[in-house]
Amino acid sequence: MEAHETVTGYLHPRYAASLAEYGLPRALPHSGAWVLQRAIPSVPFHDAMGCYPLFACRDWSRLPADLENLAHDMVCLSVVTDPFGDYDEAHLRQCFPDKVVALKEHFCIDLGRPMEEYVHRDHQRKARKALARLRVERCADTIQCLDDWVRLYGHLIQRHRITGLLAFSRTVFARQFEVPGLAVFRALHRDQPVGMVLCYLQGNIAYYHLGAHSPVGYDMGSSFALFWHLTEHLRDGGLRWINLGGGAGVAADATDGLSRFKRGWSTGTRTAYFCGRIFNRPAYDRIVVSKGRADTAYFPAYREGEFH
Questions:
Q1: pLDDT tens, 165-216?
Q2: What is the pLDDT of residue 253?
Q3: How many domains does the chain have?
């Protein structure tokens, strides 16, 4: 058995391959991580970024060796770290001397605690109401749910006017639905899917990936029914943690609606860091000057606005 067959979710090669529209998947063999290599427009250089939404490593202690190898042909690298990774801030600063900032607090669930003890009372009330009207299940055959998911995600794109990286194509989702460790939950009204949630299971952690709902689903509270059901299901399946991710947008904002919703399910938070490293300083500086981006805090500076 090859080594990658023992890993699942964001660590698996198929997940990196699902994002090939955004860059060439490149393995970091020592740490077991993946990055996406990208051509820098108008210049004969490349840089790399971690896979969306998190940069996950099997062995963080061996990441420095991989970064030394990237230095041979990359201008720079930017990543958002897995908040459950086995590292501390000092290690991140060793690996990424040019930029380490706390990006977001990810809401987490300790599955060792009873749900009635920590789920917000209003969330509990809405979940009971929704579960009385909806049937919620884990999809036994995930690939059979792909078309329903693409349809529901289309509603999400329209509702929030999503563009750029998060406006995933059907091709991306078809590949992601074949990644080992995917768990798909759906809420049905009169046998029609009105809401779905995707999670990736890695070890004893479930990572909330994406969720989408139809207008009927929003009206009937399908998100509350799904979160209650999947939390019970994953707890009974022997997992210890759920990483619900952070709030909306690229920066921390504890007041947005998604943050309030996730906070109502969580037992605490863990920090995800944004990290950057410049491997070729002369090339980096020349590109920044040529793009007129010297006065931005964005990293890499020459790609400011790329996801808007």
A1: 889 999 999 999 999 999 999 999 999 999 999 999 999 999 999 999 999 9
A2: 55
A3: 2
- Tell me the three-class secondary structure of 114-166, residue by residue: CHHHHCCHHHHHHHHHHHCCCEEEECCCHHHHHHHHHHHHHHHHHHHCCCHHH
Q: Are 129 and 89 part of one and the same domain?
A: no
Confidence band for 250, pLDDT divided at 50, 70 and 90: low
Domain span at residue 81 reads 3-105+271-303
Q: Which tens digit of pLDDT belongs to each residue from 98-108? A: 999 999 999 99
Question: Residue 254 — pLDDT band, cuts 50, 70, 90?
Answer: low
Do 128 and 39 reside in the same domain of the chain? no
Total count of residues recorded for the chain? 308
CA 27 to chain centre: 18
**The two structure tokens encoding residue 283:** 């090339």
On whether both 195 and 296 belong to a single domain, the answer is no
175 Cβ contact partners less than 8 Å away, ≥ 6 residues apart: 14, 17, 18
Contacts of 29 (CB under 8 A, 6+ apart): 66
